[in-house]
Amino acid sequence: MSRIRNSWELVKASWRVLLADKELVLFPIISFFASMIVVATFFLPMLFAGVFDAIFAGGAQVLGLVVGFAFYIFLYFVTFFFNSALVGAAMIRLEGGDPTVSDGLRIAGQHVGSIFGYAVIAATVGMILRAISERAGILGQIVIGIIGFAWNIATFLVVPILVVEGVGPVDGVKRSAELLKKTWGEQLAGNFSIGLIFGLLIFGVILAGGALTVVTAVAGFTWLAITLALLVLVTLIVLGLISSSLNGIFTAAVYQFATTGESKYFDPEMVKSTFKQK
Predict the structure, then answer these.
(1) Which of 23, 51, 71, 169 is the most buried (most CB within 10 A)?
(2) Each residue's pLDDT tens digit, 92-141
(3) For residues 259 and 246, what is the distance between their CA atoms, to the nearest angstrom?
(4) pTM for the structure as a whole
(5) Cα separations in angstroms, 256 against 41, 186, 191, 259
(6) What is the CA radius of gyration of the chain?
(7) Contact 175, 165 (CB under 8 A)
(8) What angle do CA 52, 81, 31 make, to 5 degrees?
């Protein structure tokens, strides 16, 4: 019960920041459309050029690896860039300012080189772990999963470090690991669960909305079923956007607390309790 209570307090604290600057939710929206542009830029030309057929036939494996790696890099870059913009804007709010979308984009733009470098590092780690996982057995996949989880913990604060301290991507990873170890130990606690709460909400929407949609469709209310299905889709999108925004805000608040020992919107004891000491 204490974990559930802490999780809810985290959501409410992040929610207060989001209410103060509702435009922060625009960053995940822009990031989504930018990611779709990256997908279209890579896959549509390859599809029409017949590259996929050659890769599946085994005649262009090297080309497939190169293109796949480049795709990973640019997709990571888009994600990190707009997440950096979100975190940068959230930092302004946490420091008592009143940020705008242009403020966040400006901050991310000032560190575009470091963000791209970090995207290259993250893409490299991701491809290596994925390649090993595909060739490993069940035990090996478990080990790779643990390594991936450890990597996510070690890089938890990289984005705010890049946009606030202006260091390079390698130093950003090192600094992130140092801050987590110094302040909370090396492992995230299970009660850090904004993702869990929204996962449950999304599951509930899918379960209830899906059931209602099926019932109305079976009963012959076709247009009502279509309307319900669209409503479920819109609700899932909204929940996803809010969850992404809250996670970015929480990351900024954790960084602020890790470096200053305080945070305007978060109770320090609550933030501490979301991590377990080693």
Answers:
(1) 169
(2) 888 888 888 999 999 999 999 999 999 999 989 988 888 887 777 777 77
(3) 20
(4) 0.80
(5) 37, 18, 20, 5
(6) 21
(7) yes
(8) 65
